[in-house]
Amino acid sequence: MTSTRDEQTKDRDGWKAELGQRFAAFIDAYERRSLEALGELFWHDEDLVVMGTHSNLHFTGWAQVEHSFQRQFEHLRDLHVTLRSQPLWHGGAPPSTMACLTVPAMDLSVTVDGKPTTFAGIRVTCAFERRGTEWRMVQMHWSLPRVEVLVNHGAQ
């Protein structure tokens, strides 16, 4: 009887482990500045949304999101992400096809146009959607605790 309960718990919570791996893959791809790897983590829909703190950081559709990452990688070097808090998960248990990850505090150390800097306490939320057996992101939001624009993306 215990194994059945353990199996049910594993099935019920397996989505957390899977999405934890997907978010870890996002961090790895971002740190490596790999557009190809990032492309495997997002659904390439026109209603995909990625936004940041500033008004110039709102992108819809994979083409705009990819362009944003490309612009960042032109200016940013030595990217290193440090999670300062455990991710919090919402939804996702079967039969749900949607889940949300919240990271209350994360640090990003980068070299911006030759100048090292660290952004501490970034808040991140990601919405994941499962299609068939695969989970990918459909929305991401980063809130920077600073006011200056890190990379000017210009008008889209």
**Count of β-strands:** 7
Order of H and E elements: HHEEHEEEEE
What's the overall geometry? Answer: globular
Largest sheet: 7 strands, mixed
Percent in strands: 35-45%
Radius of gyration: 17 Å
Unreliable residue stretches: none
Number of helices: 3
Q: Separation of termini? A: 58 Å
Structural class: alpha+beta
How would you state the average pLDDT, rounded? 87
Helical content stands at 25-40%
What does this structure look like?
The chain is α+β, with helices and mostly antiparallel strands. Helices cover 33% and strands 38% of the residues. It contains 3 helices and 7 strands; from the N terminus they run ααββαβββββ. It has helices at 2-32, 35-39, 61-75; strands at residues 49-51, 58-60, 76-83, 88-91, 98-112, 115-131, 134-143. Strands 1, 2, 3, 4, 5, 6 and 7 form a 7-stranded mixed β-sheet that branches. Strand 1 and strand 2 form a beta hairpin. The N and C termini lie far apart (58 Å). The mean pLDDT is 87.
